[in-house]
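Name: DNA topoisomerase 4 subunit A
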Amino acid sequence: MSDLLADEPGGNVRDVRLSEALSERYLAYALSTIVSRSLPDVRDGLKPVHRRLLYAMRQLRLEPNSGFKKSARVVGDVIGQYHPHGDQAIYDALVRLAQDFALRYPLIDGQGNFGNIDGDNPAAMRYTEARLTEVAMALLEGIDEDAVDFRPTYDGEGQEPVVLPASFPNLLANGAQGIAVGMATSIPPHNAGEVCEALLHLIDHPNARIETLIDRMPGPDFPTGGILVEPRSTIVEAYTHGRGSLRVRARWHREALKGGTYQVVVTEMPYQVPKARLVEKIADLLANRKLPALHDVRDESTDEVRLVLEPKSRNVEPAALMESLFKQTELETRVGLNMNVLDADTTPRVMDLREVLQAFLDHRHDVLVRRTRHRLGEIARRLEVLDGYLVAYLNLDEVIRIIREEDHVRQKLIDTFNLTEIQADAILNMRLRALRKLEEMKIREEHQKLTEEQADLQDLMNDESRRWQRIGDDLKAIRKRFGKDTELGRRRTELGEAPADIDVPVEAFVEREPITVICSRKGWIRAMKGHLTDTSEVKYKDGDGPRFAVHAQTTDKILIFATNGRFYTLNPDRLPGGRGYGEPLRLMIDLPNDADVVEILSHKPGRKLLVVCDSGHGFIVDEDDTVAQKKGGKQILTVPSGHEAKLCRPVPDEADHIAVVGDNRKLLVFPRNELPELAKGRGVFLQRYKDGGLADAKAFKLDDGLTWKINAERTRTETDLRAWLGKRATAGRMVPNGFPRKTGFGA
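Structure predicted for DNA topoisomerase 4 subunit A:
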């Protein structure tokens, strides 16, 4: 087999490690992707596909003052001559160059459906037409004057430019996006007039600080407008390192309506945010009740963006409403800055702002020198021809004689008048009408002008300061054509102040509706609308009845304290409505079968709770520490074996004493400061018992007296409690006369 391969051309077989072969080929692929597809050139700001598109359209003479041609014709020429890739990929690149919402300064003038800001797809290439814009012509200016290098096309049958002359600062003006192998680029668009200002300043001050350059081009200028809300320090840092991100918000205003109501109208979108997708996102958030302050969203856009946001209430502040939308939707986005580009040596690297601007200036200087040399060469050739014409006019009769009589006319002219071959050919190719006196005067005038131009260009080549002055003049011309004084060049993105960190509580937006949480004796729970004062009409299953009825709000958390000493937390939106009998509580929380509910409370942040076990142990706990994040609840009170948690009571802020009564009907009152405040644990003894256990406990203010219920309508307050005052953990004395037989303060 090896002998057969050896006889065949290219039959050399080598043993190579698989890892080496893979790494070699992957590196070649990566470099090809980086250089030939994904990263723009810092000089003209274009990727190869965009450069080839513009050059092919110029070859087709699709200039701004000419007619349009089908996009399919352009794509076909690009595929056939310059870019052998899929037609859809090339057409997508062409479409983007024509979209005024994607490019700050479109390079292609499109006719037909080229997509829109909603994210709709463009029409097929057979339906759309295209031609170059003035900006594209500025990029191509001087390409026939040896301004840039050319290289063979992929099939070797033609030539294509390595880079465009680019008198327009396209990289920063239009930005670039690209993902290569292991690297990416993201450059936002800027205002061309501002970029020219920074370039002019850099010409005068080559070592200018980036801060001074940013004074002249203070930030991106997006084609879709919006407001840049990033502090200057962050912008300076991003452009200094060539990496960062900038925050952009939609532009909006408040529109007053009748009756004191209003609506918010969004008129400009953040860059590269499809409006239709944004509307869908807002609608989804509305359906999921995540935008409680917003009632409706409508898209009333025509040629201009008009997105209407209708608040639920006129009491909602517009700024607060928009702040919630900025946090949850793409009405605020971050635009990446990663100035990773190919330098003049086609080496990918991240540049800072000054390096990018200087690279463009160096390219313009190189283009100016090459165009000047090219023009000097043209002038020299033309002057050579004109010198021959002048010799012919001075010796017209002899020239005519030689032409009529000599056999070797060309050589005779060269020998007789000491002419060059080019001059002799020019004389022989001259038309008879050019022999008039008037033509001789025109030739002498042209000769004089070209001689003066030649001297001026030679002086330009010898004077670097003049060359930089010429580059500055070209930039001023670009600034005049595309700067802020033109409709295309006016700044669209407002430079806003960095927004203050507005902490908008959810409660400011959420509708707080009163509800009554009802739990039956058998543990079926539900939430009924409103604060019910009479629950006698509430229906229960046969054999079941009322146990807890708690007033709360839809925004509250519901705390459940069980006999095992654990707290469980429920959100009201998880509770079933009041039309049926509710649902078993044990399906919502992991309440053991041997445990029962002691108390149900509406959570009040910052409140203190008195938690007590029937053994007499207990302590005060901060209610915020009892909120559980899991279905299994949170262990707060450690219950001794054979006992269970007895009660959970709110502690008023003004309370200074604790009253405890046991099953033996003995009452003890002691100062509140004798009872510790713990996050969890067993606590301390509140009252000691010889028989029975703790029946009830409450915190109260001593000066107000101790109050207990006699029945549903009557209460009694005992103000003289000296007989029951004592130390914590003592036995206490028998309750006062009139204390209910069912020992407790609340029954």
